Amino acid sequence: IDPVEDRRHSKRQTHHINMLGFVADSEYGIPTRCLCGGRVINEVAGKEDYDTLPGKRFFTCKNYEADGFHYRQPWVISVQEELERLTKRVKEAEEVMMGVSNLSKQIEPVSVLNDQVSDLNEQVYDLSVQVDTLERVCFD
User: Cα(106)–Cα(113) distance, rounded to whole angstroms?
Assistant: First the structure.
């Protein structure tokens, strides 16, 4: 056994396994492109397809081969997954909106605190003027 050829074979196997994993990971929601770079088409199964129901729809890579490297997923599953993903995003957006609403309620008291700080600063200034005046009277 040639170690160089064995290493090449091992790298090819690793690449093959990684690509199968990438295809499996990408099969979520409505695809825009296949991993091979091919365009995804909306395919309708005809009557000659004995293994599926006639009229069943798929999202399929234009270069589809049954080798596991190309995308082909039933239309119903893709639409359902896409709907779940969008529903999750709407819920996350609602949570963010509620957080912003709560923050705006917390920001209002901050403006009240700023007014109070300003009033206290004026009082401190007035007291320092009075102390200065009393020091002049007492030490003169």
Answer: 11
Q: What is the pLDDT of residues 31-72, one digit of tens each?
A: 677 777 778 777 777 666 555 566 678 878 888 877 777 777
Residue 78 near residue 40 (C-beta atoms within 8 A): no
Place of tokens 């993903």: 85
* CB-count exposure of residue 119 (10 Å: 0-12, 13-18, 19+): exposed
Q: Which two tokens stand for residue 140?
A: 């003169």
Containing 114, the helix (H) or strand (E) segment is: helix 75-139
The H helix count followed by the E strand count for the chain is 2, 3
The amino acid present at 24, given as its one-letter code, is A
Instruction: Note the pTM of the prediction, 2 decimals.
Output: 0.46
* CA distance linking residue 114 with residue 124, whole number of Å: 15
